[in-house]
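Sorry to interrupt, but I need a hand with the structure work. Please put the record directly below this note.
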Amino acid sequence: MLDLYTIRQKKGKLDNIKVGVLGDLLYGRTIHSLVKLLSLYDNVSVYGLSKKEFALPKEYIDEMKSKNVKYTVCSSFDDIPADIDVLYHTRTQYERFEGERGREEFIIDKTILDKFSKDTILLHPLPRNEEIAPDVDDDPRALFFKQAHNGVQIRMALLLQALNINEG
């Protein structure tokens, strides 16, 4: 819900959007929640970019397909439309694995981000590793710190709803 709130806050809509999901699509629970929630809206396209071993599970692809969400598997940043509305990157959770940690394959730095529209927003559930370079932190499209801050309002609203408290 936090991610949808942030997207809607910045883009003004949740229908008719294109979202790129990147990184650990296999284990990333925020990615799983996001694609399920995006499936509730009209004319949504999702582009998935990850290492093959971290691809989005078939069950999520099938769910999106059943709700008329177009899903495209990408092999590089070049496969993602330059006018995409949202880039949502997650970190690979290497702590799940034994052995040597691999290098992140898809890193968003200033050069990569500049391939996309001035209206594209960049989100990340934090914490991050090297998948988003610090040189994008000052870019107005990088909203991951704002996204984290929005969590306060979302949690407050959910608590009010759960406790059936009407603030008026």
